[in-house]
Task: inverse folding
C-alpha cells in the first residue's frame, strides 16, 4: 500500500491532487482486498509479533503521509499539534471501516467513492449559514 500511495502522490503536483490520489489509492486497494483490511483491523492478534510490528510500522507510515498532506491542505490552520491525530484518524475511520458495507458492484466505483470521501472530509456535507456556530 505504501508504494501505491507514494506512486499516486508522485504523479500529481499540487497538494489537493496528491491528497485525492492518495485516498483513491487506499480505497482502491481496500476494495480489491477487503479480507486484508478485516485481518488488519480485527485479527492482528493472530499474527506473529514480527508480522504485527511490520504491519504497525506500515500503518504509521501511511498515517504520517496522509497527516502531512492534511496539514499542507489546512489553510485555515485548524490542525494543531494536539488535533493532528484527531483529524487524521477521523479520516481513517471513514476509510478503514468502509469494507464492512462498500460494494463496488452496487454502482459506485472505488474512485468515485474515494472522491466522495475527500469532498465530504474537506468540504463537509452542508455548510453552516454565515455566522452559525461562530
Result:
Amino acid at each position: 500500500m505504501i508504494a501505491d500511495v507514494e506512486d499516486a502522490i508522485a504523479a500529481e503536483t499540487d497538494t489537493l491532487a496528491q491528497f485525492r490520489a492518495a485516498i483513491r489509492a487506499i480505497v482502491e486497494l481496500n476494495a480489491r482486498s477487503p479480507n486484508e483490511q478485516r485481518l488488519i483491523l480485527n485479527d492482528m492478534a493472530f499474527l506473529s509479533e514480527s508480522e504485527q510490528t511490520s504491519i504497525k510500522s506500515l500503518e504509521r507510515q501511511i498515517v504520517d503521509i496522509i497527516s502531512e498532506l492534511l496539514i499542507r491542505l489546512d489553510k485555515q490552520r485548524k490542525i494543531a499539534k494536539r488535533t493532528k491525530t484527531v483529524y487524521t484518524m477521523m479520516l481513517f475511520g471513514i476509510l478503514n471501516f468502509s469494507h464492512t458495507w462498500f460494494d463496488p458492484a452496487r454502482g459506485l466505483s472505488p474512485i468515485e467513492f474515494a472522491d466522495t470521501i475527500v469532498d465530504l472530509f474537506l468540504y463537509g456535507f452542508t455548510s453552516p449559514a454565515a455566522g452559525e456556530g461562530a
